[in-house]
């Protein structure tokens, strides 16, 4: 994979966003590139959701999110996610994810 897919439905679930765990394929990409693993995946995920997923919502439809200190999904909403509305999913390039996770510097990006 070369993109992290963030689905708005994950905001409404304790187990969303891979249960809050860094996806294995990102860890594999770090191994392949000789990079350290993301040390604080929960904060990285929160930032990616706020900067990439939330802006993808139409005006007035953006849910309010809050941080959760847990071993599960660390960013959630209590707002209703309409199952009948088109899904809100964004794809974040792997290099952007790694830069945001602090395991790669811009000049290291391919």
3D architecture notes:
The protein has 110 residues and is an alpha+beta fold. The protein has one domain. It is built from four helices and four strands; from the N terminus they run E-H-H-H-E-E-E-H. It has helices at residues 16-19, 24-33, 41-53, 94-101; strands at residues 3-7, 66-67, 75-76, 89-93. A two-stranded antiparallel ribbon has the order 1-4. A two-stranded antiparallel sheet has the order 2-3. A hairpin with a 7-residue loop joins strand 2 (66-67) and strand 3. The longest helix has 13 residues, at 41-53. The chain is globular.
User: Approximately how much helix is present in the residues?
Assistant: 25-40%
Shape: globular
User: Proportion of β residues?
Assistant: 5-15%
Query: What's the total number of strands?
Result: 4
For the largest beta-sheet, the strand count, sense and barrel status come to: 2 strands, antiparallel
